[in-house]
Amino acid sequence: MMKLLHEREEIIKYSLKMVKSALTTGSGGNLSIFNRSEGLIAITPSGIEYHELTPNDILLLDIDGNIISSSNSTLLNSNLQDANFNLKPSSEVGFHLALYRKRSDINAVVHTHSPYATTFACLNREIMPVHYLVAFAGKKVPVAPYATFGTRELADNIASTIDDYNAILLANHGLVAVGKTMQNAFNTAEEIEFVARICYQTECIGKPIILSDDEMDKVIEKFKDYGSKEKS
Ligand SMILES: [Zn+2]
Question: According to CATH, what is the number of the domain 5-229?
Fold first, then answer.
C-alpha cells in the first residue's frame, strides 16, 4: 500500500481543479497536505505539468524537509514507488513547512499565481473587505513582504505574516491559502481570487464601499458556525 495514497490523490485532484478554475497556468503554484498523525507531508513535485501527475510523482517529506523513502518492504515488492526519487519537491517547499510549523490548526497549503490576487500582490496592496467573502481569509488579506521565490527569507516573511489569516498575498508574486483540509484551503484560494477581482472591478468604475470592522466580526462569527456544521 502506497504511503499517504489518499493525500496524494487529493493533491492531484485539486491540482487539476486549480488549472480548471484558472487559478494557475502550466505548472505554476503548488499544493501540499500534512498528515500530522503520520508526520508526513505530501507535496507537488517541481516542474511537472499537473495533467501528467500520478500518485507516484507526489513527494513525501518530514517536517524538516527530508524526502522520505518508502519502506524497504515496498522496495522488495519492486513496485515503482521510489520513482519519485528522481523528482524534486516544489521549489516553495520551505514556506509550506514553515506554515505547518507555525500553525498547528492547518493541514493543507495552496499556493497560486491567480491573476487578480496577484495584481494586488504586485501593488503590495492588502485586499480590504469590499465583499464579505474576504472573511475566508480574515478581516482582510494582508501582504507578506517580497523576497526571491524559493528562499528562506520568503518562508520567514510568510510565516510572520500569516498570523491567524487563512490567506495572504506574497508581494510581487501571488497568493497562499491555508486550511484544515485541502478543500478548505482550495475554497479560500478561489474565494479570495473572486474578491480580488471584485475589488479591482469596483475600483475601475467607482469607489468601493468597504465593510466595517464590526460587520466583518459578525461575518467571521457566522462563518465559524457554518464551518462547524460541515463535516470536513
Ligand atoms: Zn509561486
Answer: 3.40.225.10
